[in-house]
Fold each of these.
Amino acid sequence: MALTGLEVFKQLPKTNCKKCGHPTCLAFAMTLASGKANLDQCPDISAAAREFLDSASAPPVTLVKIGTGEREVQLGNETVLFRHDRRFEHPTGIAILVSGTQDDIAAKVEQVDRLVFDRVGQIHNINLVAVKNSSGDGGKFAEAVKTASEKTDFPLILINEDPSAIEKALIVEGAKKPLVCGANAANYEAMTAVTKKFDVPMVVKGADLNELAGLVEKVVALGHKQLVLDSGAREVNRVLADQTQIRRQALKRFRPFGYPTIAFADNEDPVQAVLEAGVYIAKYAGIVVLSSADPADILPLITLRLNIYTDPQKPIAMESRIYEIGTPGSDAPVFVTTNFSLTYFCVAGDVEAARVPAYILPVDTGGISVLTGWAAGKFTPEKITEMLQGSGIADRVSHRKVIIPGGVAVLSGKLQELSGWEVLVGPRESSGIPAFIKQRWIA
């Protein structure tokens, strides 16, 4: 709730009826302002006051949804300028531009669909396909959209400033809720009418920030609020400045800028385009559109996005279960570590380097590392014993030997006593695992 308790109190009926469960309206207002109560608890609040308070409590950046089903892309709901203040809510959507003949579009969409990356145990891909047809023929544009739609289940961005061409395309694609790009000073009335008719989100583009703010107000007055903003800038320094200003003003509750944004990394040099896209991902773009579908270009952006749009208060964690490296048998070694993703992948990589099939058991420490987990009381003999007994590893191996990180050798005695397993103290660093297995492991 952005308002103070007294500001909320001014909107309440002030009857002290206690129907909300609080002794006074002021007490309810204070609770409501702290986010610990719901406005629905007040049965006597006026419609005008409800609308005002709902608006004030909404996130500064409106939530916009593109597409349907599992591939739906959500943008907005952002509340901070800096990630460490809280977190960023929705990762930047990465869109790949397709254009040209029907065959060109079909081939590139198939290439886009193959952009799948396994990163720290999670599967990542791009999010949208942007379709552009510059022939000026609305019928051909609709055919291009149909071709792309048939080849992928990613949501589409329809790039065309002709409202009649957009309407033809939406007859084909409207049910899948694509993003229409876009409305400008010359066509916003017709484009708003078309997108409202099909109930789809729309990009509003201005020549600069002043024109953009005015256009947004006009579009909202026409009844359309599912908007994405394009400042019109294309030079990277100008885009960066505009993205930052839009976010700053949105957080100050300047409503025309309270929407997610779109940026185009359209440099002809693919390396420069990737660098531009990286800047836009780091600085608030809701969607970044680029032309390259080369995995070497997309993977760095996926990685950057993953680093920026993870919750800084929640480390990336692996599921706490048995992991197999190679094809381990009943005599394979068993390694215990924590479920912090970086720790797990370091251990897994070094076990693979040893060329000995093995099992790895990442204990659930809330996604923190070995020494941090031990210091916090989350990587303990009791937790490791629970993992050994509950994971089913005893049914997979014929021995009862477990290898723990050398940095927590102090756990070995009590762990052996609690679990009944023989505890081997491994190397302090996972890079020593290959040598350790050769020298110490005997099933």
Amino acid sequence: MYATGYVIAIVGIAICVLLCGVGSAIGLYKTGSVAAGVLGEDPKKFGKLMVLVLLPATQGIYGFIIGIIASGKLVADMGDPAGWALFGAVLPMALSGLITGIFQGKSSVNCIYAVGKQESLSGKLIIYPAMIEFYAILGLIISIMLVAQI
């Protein structure tokens, strides 16, 4: 039988991976849908759009990384305080992954529309969704630091 702290920690890790995946999926749905429309008019823009389309995928990857790192801290007989500590340690990535994945997708959608109108902007426009990526990276770093302390 596993201790309650172990179950709490497992739930926290699962929530982190799940929320980051949901944020990425929503962001990718938005970018992929818009890119399909733009490519329907000009298939030659595929390479220019690919980075903008894939940017929201990183949050899912970050959540997966935190899930792997945090899983290394699981102990079958961990107490409630340790379980809650691990739960709390993965929350920065869980919440930043969900929110930034969605908003990075929205930002990328507008950039994809702009590239559809003027292809030469693709290199310049990547900076806008990349600024949102910065906050996902901060969540990743904080969660790594917190998990390492447990």
Amino acid sequence: MGRTQGLERASVSADSQLVVFRVGSGKFAVNIHDVREIIRLPRITRVPEASEVVEGIINLRDEVIPVYDLRKRFGVSETGFTEESRIIVVNVRELCGLIVDAVQEVISVSKEAIVPPPPEVVTQDSSYIDSIAIRDDRLILILNLKELLQGVTAAA
């Protein structure tokens, strides 16, 4: 019985670390293990006839990577970039950048505070919503980057 209690305690204390960011008025997060780095917006080179959500490409230490604007991906009205705008460089299938309005924090969330999204809110167009973190009085949408990027490249 002591062994079972130890296992239960381990699952309760197991946390996920998430990078929380804002796009429009929404709070989103990705697993910190998928994030290579977070950078200020450098000069972005536009690519003719690229998908609408592709903002362009950047040179990151002699590596050319595509950059996707999550405001366009989520259908949020564009207000221009600000001092808070950042690129979250992720490595899922390949290295790429995700433009967000602001990176807010890194949080630890217990497994018990992560729930699946209600089936009524997930459509084929929003299948990138992996789960929802409940933190204090906030709901944070946790993104599945493979699904999110699949949707972006399919839109190209």
Amino acid sequence: MIQRVPMTPAGLEILRTELRRYKEVERPKVVRDIEVARAHGDISENSEYEDAKERQSFIEGRIRELESMVSAAQVIDPTRLSGEKVMFGATVTLCDTETEEESTYQIVGQMEADVTAGRISVNSPIARAIMGKLVGDVVRVRVPKGERELEITHVKFV
């Protein structure tokens, strides 16, 4: 049985785009590179051939990995959700109770997380601490900088 992995529609599209690129661009290119290297003669001492074969192995492995991720995706569209309860897909504003610094994050699947873009993995310590909580709730979270106390000030679904 395939374990389903939560993902936003945007995250699934990113995976599908990467998969298409590997299948339609990268795979044919490496096949041509192997043919060209093979045409140079003795492949036993041909570094171009060895490099191309190594690249082909990487590409085939990445294609299998992407196909597996796409087939395991459980797409959850945040625009179809609502409420004040923190759940997958929510965009949550948190206020550090000590510094009063605000941070806003969208809770997304592990494969689409990018902290610099404000997207944190559903498996991250912050996301795990706030899942199921409501606006006004305060949670304690252990992060690399130590323990922080965060208040949930806003939840929206976009």
